[in-house]
Amino acid sequence: SQEVLAMGVCSWLESLTEYNSVKYVRIQSVTWGGVRCFLSATVALSICCVVIIYRLHQEMDEVNSSIRTSVKGVAHTDNRIWDTAEYTIPMQAINSFFVMTNIIKTENQLEWMCPEYPFPKAICSSDKSCEKGSVDINSHGIQTGRCVYYNATVKTCEVRAWCPVESMENPPDPAVLRRSEDFTVLIKNNIHFPKFNYTVLNVPQNLNTSCTYNKITSPLCPIFRLGDILQEAKENFSEMAVKGGIIAIEINWDCNLDRWFYDCHPEYGFRRLDDKKIKPGFQFRYAKYYKLPNGKEQRTLFKVYGIRFDVLVFGTGRKFNAIELIKNVGSMMSYFGLVVTAIEMAICVGNCSGCCKSPFYRLYDRKKFETVLNPRQVMYVSYVDEPHVTLIKKPLKTSLQHTQGSIVESDPVKFDDAGGCCPSEAKENDDNEEYALTHALRPGASSPYFLEWCRCGKCRPTQEFHEQLCCRRKEGPCITTSQLFQELVLSRHTLDKALLYKDPFLDLTDDNINNQLRHLAYKQYVHWRFGSFDLEDRAVVPSCCRWKIRDAYPKADHDYTGFEME
């Protein structure tokens, strides 16, 4: 267990010194190269446009603000002058002001007993209908338990309240202060961006006090006519003045604080906040109290209707920041991956369409995808009369010789890489390979066995499908009769050098040396014919070659396990 742990630690430490890089397939094509350049340029241009349009190169800060308002105007209605002190009532809401447009007055009220206003629950026929001390949510006072006449035809419960009670009638129409639409309001808005330590006011330094806001001619004037505000909000002032309502005055600050592109001014917007269909309007009550000569207190009750204006300020300040630019551009660099995805999809569509017969797509598939199969489920074979390695999948339904497979791309390597010795001899042998393979040393005798799957006449019979493999696809001389097979695979001189190269002190006179020579001969053949050690485990040596090696370096008991390299 300690050895396994030590090996694991060593493997982990070794992985720290390695770097894995992605392997790419380069397509030499003017068409696909042009598509890549076009898409890359489109993505780059899109990134630049997004950065500029959405100002991703700038740091942002939220606005802090304060509001001051001043309403001016005088109206003459019902032989009475209404000035700012009367129609402008301070509001408890922040950044709001109220302008009265309509009023219902109940004068000379004294705290005493009087009939309730005739609403459904207050109407009675006798004292039994009135409960002493009870209070209804719509009542103006506390019931005394008596039922009295409100007028000549209607009786209501008597209440202790400010009498006479307020009548629940609709407000006057048209409104009492309908002329207030000509009133003006000056809105002073100070804003501050704490992150940039920048403060600005919506009132220009050279303000013309006679100006009035107009969306086209005077968009920066902070003096607003009330009628124009409602017109911008798409409302009729005369209609809204009857019951009142709530109007929002929106001030939007979108400030670019960079010196070379400075722009910081307010933009005004107007809209109605209360619902026109569900209980529209805005009203409240207040009273003015007086002392009578007899010491009693008297009051005048006002139910006022009007328009509440809520000033809403929002906005952002922006200033160039290199870190923000790098961060946002870096996050958008991944969009270049869309170029690769688009090209891969286009190639995939072309491959699946009618043009898939093109050699380009077949070659692309072979270069792009490398399939790793389970070594226990595949075999590799090589024929002397074919220039490639063939992959065959298990299980076999016929002889290995007759089973159809798929071509495997293989990069041949020099023989001297396999043996590790005799480089000069190997190079000379490699140069003469084509000649040697086509000219056998001798015709060779025919095999005494008739094997339907054998093409060279040198194979031996076997019942196992995976052992029924010849060195050739078509009839011809056996590879074992070639000069290269004798020199590269069977040569005792070459094999001895290869063994001594790995173990200089190996005893070549040992009784079991044949086993090592035989195994090395198998490997020499695989490296020669398959061109890679990667295929060594599942490469199949043909029957003729296998038995030629076994005859040259036999086992003492001549007991072989089959097609395995034994």
Task: Write a short abstract of this structure.
This protein is α+β, with helices and mostly antiparallel strands and 566 residues long. The chain is built from 15 helices and 18 strands. It folds into four domains: 26-56 and 323-366, no CATH class; 64-108 and 167-318, atp-gated p2x4 ion channel fold (Sandwich), CATH 2.60.490.10; 117-164, no CATH class; 378-411 and 448-552, no CATH class.
What's the number of extended β-strand segments? 18
Query: What oligomeric arrangement do these chains adopt?
Result: single chain
3D shape: elongated
**Beta-strand share of residues:** 15-25%
> What level of helicity do the residues show?
25-40%
Tell me the Rg in angstroms.
51 Å
Q: Report the major sheet.
A: 9 strands, mixed
* CATH class call of the largest domain: Mainly Beta
Parts with pLDDT < 50 across at least 5 consecutive residues: 411-446
CATH homology superfamily name of the largest domain: atp-gated p2x4 ion channel domain
Number of helices: 15
Whole-number mean pLDDT: 85
**Alpha carbon gap, first and last residue:** 32 Å
CATH topology of the largest domain: atp-gated p2x4 ion channel fold
In the CATH hierarchy, what is the architecture of the largest domain at level 2? Sandwich
Query: Into how many domains do the coordinates divide?
Result: 4
User: Structural class of the secondary structure composition?
Assistant: alpha+beta
Domain P2X purinoreceptor 7 intracellular: 380-564
InterPro entries: P2RX7_C (IPR046815), P2X7_purinoceptor (IPR003050), P2X_extracellular_dom_sf (IPR027309), P2X_purnocptor (IPR001429), P2X_receptor (IPR059116)
Pfam family, one: P2X_receptor
Keywords: ADP-ribosylation, Cell membrane, Disulfide bond, Glycoprotein, Ion channel, Ion transport, Ligand-gated ion channel, Lipoprotein, Membrane, Palmitate, Phosphoprotein, Receptor, Transmembrane, Transmembrane helix, Transport
